[in-house]
Design a protein that fits this description.
Structural class: alpha+beta
Distance between the termini: 6 Å
Pfam family, one: GIDA
Largest sheet: 6 strands, mixed
GO cellular component, one term: cytosol
Order of helices and strands: EHEEHHEEHEEHEEEHEHHEEHEEHEEHHH
Function: Catalyzes the folate-dependent formation of 5-methyl-uridine at position 54 (M-5-U54) in all tRNAs.
CATH class of the largest domain: Alpha Beta
Subcellular location: Cytoplasm
Shape: globular
Cofactor: FAD
Number of helices: 13
Length: 455
């Protein structure tokens, strides 16, 4: 076999796609423009750099669709999920990651693979020949974005994504803050104390909302609109939707008891999650923001415990680009007008590290299978990966297509189970049991077909 698979973009999706294809015996070249060509969000030249949160979200593979996606990727020898577990940080039931060692591990393993080479260059066109996967993510370069629009004849859609601040732990006043996961969730003491909590009484909360609404914020460029993804709203936008919105979102006080004042229920709570293995940095959970830097420090230091906070990184906002996948891609993630080109990751309209890596895993396998001499059918929509790819390549309404996290609402219902909140636990367990069986069956089937295929 002499054909090479070219993968453009070395983020979560591109890294996973390269790993999967290389493991199947295909020669792969990763084209990554960093560090020669940087972005405002990336800080290093490592592959799979985490630029926003350090969380892969829930690791519960029985009651959570994201956790199920973790399980499917582990079953498929996923590089990203395995590396995440190698550098796991305490985070209750979530899979939080020490971001720098994680990216270094992914980079080292890809560089060491005998079937993978890395070319540090910018690809700014859609090639006419060869086998290509474009996994350039939400920060696709302007030149490549223009090439995609010119080829597809459709305007790329865009939304705005915001980055949460990171605080130096030593600058937090622990006489006011305390360590506790919500509802003491976790199997170990470390997990049960994975989050740092800063309480607010009603008066402080109301003053905080006033300051948030009045703060100086980033302006949009001419022609841009604030089409935010609802799963990653800036806190100012949430506050604009109602003064109580934050109390029922990232600042909800439920499941927490302040040991400094155990008899007083906090009106609101700001949570921070450990951001590195040393425990020297903490990420402000759900505090994506478009406030200007000066306003951020002023407003966030109103939070009890953060009066003297020092910020390792302040929040920011950037434009994310994604294509209208239901219109442009077939069910094997190929560009309908150019079948030699596939897309993977957030540019396809999935949202989140986990979902991006999962689409990379799937596309890497599909592209490699084609080069080996057979096609892989998409996984069943009863699986988490299958539900996602079904949604973005045809299940979603093209006219209103928006980025989507994996969730059980994308799964076909299980017959005979009652709906509503009371039946939810049994229903979710049925979804995950069915998905695991179907995913294993799909993996074994594709592995058998691969072994029988000519090379």
């Amino acid at each position: 076999m002499t054909e090479t698979l070219h993968i453009v973009g070395g983020g979560m999706a591109g890294s996973e796609a390269a790993w999967q294809a290389a493991q199947m015996g295909v020669r792969v070249i990763i084209h990554e423009m960093r560090p020669k060509v940087g972005t405002f969000a990336h800080k290093t030249g490592d592959l799979a750099e985490m630029v926003c949160s350090n969380s892969f979200r829930s690791d519960d593979d029985e009651q959570n669709a994201v956790g199920l996606l973790h399980w499917e990727m582990r079953a498929a020898d996923g590089l990203i999920i395995d590396s995440a577990h190698r550098h796991r940080l305490p985070a209750g039931g979530a899979l939080a990651v020490d971001r720098d060692p994680f990216a270094a591990t992914v980079t080292e393993r890809l560089r060491a693979h005998p079937n993978i080479s890395i070319s540090y260059e910018e690809i700014d066109t859609l090639p006419d020949s060869g086998n290509w996967v474009f996994a350039t993510g939400p920060l696709t370069s302007t030149a490549l974005g223009q090439a995609i629009r010119a080829e597809t004849g459709a305007e790329a859609l865009a939304f705005f994504d915001a980055i949460a601040p990171i605080v130096h732990f030593e600058s937090i006043d622990m006489s006011q803050a305390w360590m506790q996961s919500r509802y003491d969730k976790g199997d170990t003491e470390e997990e049960r104390t994975a989050y740092l909590n800063c309480p607010m009484d009603r008066e402080t909360y109301e003053a905080f909302i006033d300051a948030l609404l009045a703060a100086d914020k980033t302006e949009f460029h001419e022609g841009e609109t604030a089409g935010y993804f609802d799963g990653c709203l800036p806190i100012e936008v949430m506050a604009e939707r109602g003064r109580e919105t934050l109390r029922h979102g990232p600042m909800k006080p439920v499941g927490l008891t302040n040991p400094h004042q155990p008899d007083i229920k906090a009106h609101a709570v700001v949570q921070l999650r450990r951001d590195n293995a040393l425990g020297t940095l903490y990420n402000m959970v759900g505090f994506q923001t478009k406030m200007r830097y000066g306003a951020q420090t002023e407003v966030f230091r109103m939070i009890p415990g953060l009066e003297n906070a020092r910020f390792a990184r302040l929040g920011g906002i950037h434009r994310n680009t994604f294509i209208n996948s239901p219109t442009l891609l077939d069910d094997r993630m190929r560009l309908k007008a150019r079948p030699n080109i596939r897309f993977a990751g957030q540019i396809t309209g999935v949202e989140g590290y986990v979902e991006s890596a999962a689409m990379g895993l799937l596309v890497g396998r599909m592209a490699a299978a084609d080069l080996i001499g057979h096609q892989i059918a998409p996984p069943p929509p009863t699986t988490a990966t299958g539900a996602l790819v079904t949604h973005i390549t045809g299940g979603a309404e093209a006219k209103t297509f928006q980025p989507m996290n994996v969730n059980f609402g994308l799964f076909p219902p299980v017959e005979g189970l009652k709906g509503g909140r009371r039946g939810r636990r049994d229903r979710y367990k049925a979804y995950t049991d069915r998905a695991k069986a179907d995913w294993q069956r799909w993996l074994h089937q594709t592995d058998d077909e691969q072994a029988a295929a000519p090379t």
